[in-house]
Amino acid sequence: MALNNTYDARPAQQETAVGAGVQILLLALLGTAIGMGPAGWVTGLVFAIATWAVLSRALHRSRLSSFGAANRVTLGRATLVGGVTALVADSFESTPPVSVLVGLTAVALVLDGVDGKVARRTGTSTALGARFDMEVDAFLILVLSVYVSMSLGPWVLLIGGMRYAFVAAARLAPWLNAPLPPSTARKTVAALQGILLLLAGADLLPHAANLGVVLLALGLLVWSFGRDVLWLWRRSRMRAMVAAEVDEVLESSVAEVLVEATRAA
């Protein structure tokens, strides 16, 4: 009797479609509440469609039969990030209420610590879930840096763009793709980026204080990335030295065997 190994991706992908629908509903609520303009609508819709398409493709490739509770939390965060993205895009044409943007961002940041706990408690941690969580975090930081840059200057975009610059650099220098050891400091710095950018974006502090807050965020991020890049470079050098030593030993061994063979002949 033949076994049925057909993979059914529909249950998991249906949840991504629901997520896209909730995203559109959130945009409709924002549009009704604040009168969001075309830029916000278009950006929000593009975000919803792109998230649905990328996540559906990733689910199909990972062959997950269930979306999982933790991924549902992350999808909820992605929906909130889509709302924040729409509001930031709308801010180029008008001035949306800061309280709404701050509220959506704050909830997204709070939920950042929830999906990981849910994954561990339910035993549903997956590589896809970890990557999904990381990409949502990175995009939120990018969007917040765009928003804050409108008041403090384009240099703030360094914060949001640093992770993407690292990914691009890894294509040219493959040694940057090596796995990094777990680090509480790295996680703390990553979490602080959203908090500090949100604080500056809320505009509760004087301009000089906001500038100091964002400079602190940038300094911590440069330190964290710099430390990781240095560790990866040292690791690559060490691996290269070990490989060279192994090659040298093998060459010496082959040479000795050839000498012995010659003598025996």
UniProtKB/TrEMBL annotation:
Q: What is its EC number?
A: 2.7.8.-
- Tell me the protein family, please: Belongs to the CDP-alcohol phosphatidyltransferase class-I family.
The record's annotation in InterPro entries points to: CDP-OH_P_trans, CDP-OH_PTrfase_TM_dom, CDP_ALCOHOL_P_TRANSF_CS
Sequence intervals crossing the membrane: 24-55, 128-149, 211-233
Name of the protein this chain belongs to: CDP-alcohol phosphatidyltransferase family protein
Q: Which GO terms describe its molecular function?
A: transferase activity
Q: What are the alphabetically sorted keywords of the record?
A: Membrane, Transferase, Transmembrane, Transmembrane helix
Q: Name one Pfam family in it.
A: CDP-OH_P_transf
